[in-house]
Amino acid sequence: MKISVLGLGYIGLPTALLFASAGHEVIGVDVDTRKVELLNKGKLPFQEPGLEGFFEKAMPNFKATTQVEESDVFLIAVPTPLDEYTKAADLRYAQSAAEMIYLHLRKDNLVILESTVPPKTTERILIPILEKSRLKAGRDFYVVHCPERAIPGKTIYEMVHNDRIIGGITKESAELAKKLYSSFVKGNIYITDLTTAEFVKLIENTYRDVNIALVNELAQIAEEYGINIWNAIELANKHPRVNLHKPGPGVGGHCIAIDPWFVIQSSSNGKIIALARHVNDTMPNYILRKVREMLKDIKYPTITVLGVAYKGNVDDARETPALRFIKLAENEGFRVKVYDPFVKEFEYPILSLEEAVKDSDCIVVITDHEVFKFLDPEKIGQLMRHKLVFDGRNILDHKKWAEAGFNIKVLGNSKER
Ligand code: SAJ
User: Fold this and answer.
1) Which residues line ligand 1 (CB under 6 A)?
2) If pLDDT is split at 50, 70 and 90, which confidence band does 417 have?
3) pTM assigned to the model
């Protein structure tokens, strides 16, 4: 098959390379000329574990370009960001991808939408554009929605091993796409209709968002009762049907903080979903209140944010709660310094650990990077002005930090060490 993949980002590029490694002829299309040039030189535009490994294998069957050409399959994997003003999906990129495709669409082509979209988007937005080709969807060409479900940091593994959902305009469309994906997917592939597939993708992330909001609220309640939420969660999760998530400074990334809005944007329901968004979005405010209490006797305090990635062990800071925390802290007159061992691009300078903790009054852990467990509090303490830590992820080795003379507070645990 000749497959054109539109959008060579975190999802489109690995998908394109997986199809190419499976023996298909793949044309990667992106509007970013720099990215296209890099790829054609055999260089990857971003890091993702495992991606480099099979790039070489894929190369003979892969070409990057800025123009769409005639193909058997068109796969759309462009961003569908949240419009902050309307809290609805911004479908501009998906629409322009469809505009590029319809000019080259032929009978019996398959069009796949992988981008995350609000329910009914494929039917109401995408298909009308494709039908400007004068071909009829479901009769002259095939259409499916096959949402991506891979987690950043483990994208390749999950793309190969996770189960997939394919929603087709017709059963034939879904069956055709299933056959195509089977060339690299080892998980099960389930077939459904277009709107159900769109909905399923969204409710997976909504489930996670609402559950994280629940534990974030419980963490605050636990503090009122003077108990440790982390112990309570561990014990509650001994129940065979309970799986409480982990509290933290909120939810970042380009999926979980966004997809719940797509579920409710055109619905008259959605109270719990909107409330969960609010709880998670305001966690940085809560953490700042806690930090302020710790620093109440210190004039002109400086704080050090440990971790600005939206989650542990990744270099991705998109929609990170760290940014909200830093901005709020600055508004209140705190001086903020930032350290993250992975993140390269960020709105604030990323300092070395020594620079970031020097003369600081308090460390605030925002990201659960595994390496933070192995920090040396003795050395860090010697550089700081006051030895205070707020652990927003319960990730540090508290015993070690207490032994080094630190006063530690942990989110969801009002007990001091
Ligand atoms: N988080 C918590 N507590 C938890 C779990 C996560 O505070 O117990 C926070 C993380 O720190 C992070 C955010 O939530 O800020 C999201 O992280 P994540 O690891 O839960 O998910 P993402 O956004 O990296 O990827 C999700 C995945 N969806 C699900 O697990 C249902 C992934 O499978 C999707 O493909 C991806 O969204 C997407 O693209 O939609």
Assistant:
1) 116, 148-152, 204-205, 208, 212, 245-246, 248, 251-253, 255-256, 310-311
2) low
3) 0.94
